Amino acid sequence: MNKSYTWDALDYAKSSSAQQIWARELITKLNLQGDERVLDIGCGEGKVTAEIANLVPHGSVIGIDNSEAMLELAKTRYPISTFPNLQFLCADARQLPFEQEFTVIFSNATLHWIKDHVSVIQGISNSLQSGGKVLLQMGGRGNAAGIIRVVEEMTNSSQWRRYFVNFSFPYGFYSPDEYQHWLKDVGLEPIRLELIPKDMTHQGATGLAGWIRTTWLPYTQQLPEQMREDFVKELVDRYLEYHPVKEDGLTHVKMVRLEVEAIKC
Asked: Where are the beta strands (DSSP E) in 66-127?
């Protein structure tokens, strides 16, 4: 969300099973009663947002994303005729266009795409009613360190270096301490700030390549289109030299999620 990337919504939907599993785990922590007004920041292709809508039959849900491709797929799969309490809007999480409209604000696997979290948190506070709840999960400090090690080796290599001149690390992987200050500055009271290790698995090299192809866009979209598959293949091959496929055929990537739970004072 620091810049606009071209998302393949269908390809992402096929390669994002881990994110959806983590989202469902997160939803259970909301303890929804059924009448909440929920904002889902970074709704993507809408699957998780639709699940939230089913849990609030007497409430409403708005899912926002800055990818028109994702939103088009979401609206097709989860139409208002089937989900009358669900709406999808195109919006930038750094410039939320709401004022005290929601009782719950939720986000999963999105906010690490943004480096300026201060603007996001200010917008969350503005959008939330007094007493409202915030529950966010995103990549946190130390996330995907094994992949990052390899991709940094590659972007500094003679083969790829020229495509990454003046390139800076694109993700916002922050710590609980940083978030605590940001929340309090905008009138949000932290309840729980936690770094949680996660083991992301994929089916062999092909599954790992699918995840890299669909989510590491800040790197792949620096390259000419005809070179992207070669970049992904080299990244997978190099990563698997450090972390080989296990006997069960799965690849493993050590992830770290930052979970943020807060209420508006």
From this structure: 86-90, 102-108
Task: Provide the Cα torsion 31, 33, 35, 40; round to 10°.
Answer: 10
In tens, the pLDDT along 150-176 reads 999 999 999 999 999 999 999 999 999
Query: CATH fold of 9-144+170-203+254-264, please?
Result: Rossmann fold (3.40.50)
Q: What is the pLDDT of residues 93-138, one digit of tens each?
A: 999 999 999 999 999 999 999 999 999 999 999 999 999 999 999 9
CA distance 111 to 137: 8
Domain ranges of the chain: 9-144+170-203+254-264
Are 213 and 220 a contacting pair, CB within 8 Å? yes
Strands (E), 140-235: 188-203
CA separation for the pair 206, 73 (Å, rounded) = 24
